[in-house]
Specification:
By secondary structure, the chain is of the alpha+beta class. Strands 6-9-7-8-10 form a five-stranded mixed beta sheet, sandwiched between helices. Strands 4-3-5 form a three-stranded antiparallel beta sheet. Strands 1-2 form a two-stranded antiparallel ribbon. α1 runs antiparallel to α3, α3 packs across α6 and α3 runs antiparallel to α7. The radius of gyration is 20 Å and the shape is elongated. The relative contact order is 0.14.
Length: 243
């Protein structure tokens, strides 16, 4: 059961930020679960910074987890009102928050790779899909459409024979350079996180980034979907492709 939200804008510190509690968004004035919000605290320099892990000291102000909401909080000077101080957030705070969430995604993927639970390269990913050992399918955002279509088609073919309530997540959030950074190799276009618990944090952080970027209706109109699930709609096309 969700806890009753404190009517005050500011929480009482990191101990007051457990998952499952509710807080009020300073922008929308709506009470929402903390998992759907971002906590901001003041840095030693007096600037609001996102506390993505909800562990930073000091009282926190909560904003809906979307790019537009953070930008609106800056535009309307809501950080100063909430903290009751002459707070001057960066004009690019919404974009800076996006970069921090993205960095968390890359770090989580690097940890999965360090555990030996990631394969990369078209042939290895295709083999993992055929063996049903792929738990998450990854494509670089700058990957060629033909290779993506081939692997997505294979994932959908597998879904046609599986449980549709547990469909394979397909993620296209990271560029090839960002995949290279996470996996410690070059020219990565396709990768797969193998089945098992190792990819849980990576998937959760990826979902958070998608929500941040696409929670607003106007963003949906200009951003392509970046996290989908294999659906048994399309058979895989013929042909072979290389990374």
């Amino acid at each position: 059961m969700l806890a009753i939200a404190d009517p005050a804008d500011l929480d009482r510190g990191p101990r007051d930020t457990k998952s499952g509690t509710e807080r009020m968004c300073v922008v929308t004035r709506r009470v929402r679960p903390t998992d759907e919000l971002i906590r901001f605290v003041l840095s030693p320099a007096g600037e609001p910074v996102p506390d993505l892990k909800r562990k930073l000291p000091g009282r926190g102000l909560w904003v809906s987890a979307s790019h537009d909401a953070v930008a609106e909080a800056v535009k309307r000077n809501l950080f100063a009102r909430g903290f009751k101080k002459n707070v001057k957030p960066s004009a690019d705070l919404a974009d800076e928050t996006d970069k921090l969430i993205l960095r968390g995604v890359i770090e989580a993927l690097a940890m999965v790779a360090k555990a030996g639970q990631v394969v990369s390269g078209f042939a290895k990913v295709e083999d993992a899909l055929r063996r049903n050992t792929a738990g998450i399918l990854l494509h670089a955002t700058n990957g060629a459409a033909d290779g993506i279509r081939k692997l997505d088609g294979l994932a959908r073919q597998n879904a046609a024979f599986g449980d549709e309530t547990d469909l394979l997540p397909i993620i296209s959030l990271l560029s090839s350079d960002e995949l290279d950074l996470a996996l410690g190799r070059s020219n990565v276009i396709h990768a797969a996180v193998l089945t098992g618990p190792a990819g849980k944090t990576f998937l959760s952080r990826s979902q958070n980034l998608v929500r941040y970027r696409m929670a607003d209706a106007d963003i949906n109109a200009r951003a392509k979907p970046s996290l989908t699930h294999a659906s048994p709609d399309t058979a895989p096309p013929d042909g072979d492709f290389a990374d």
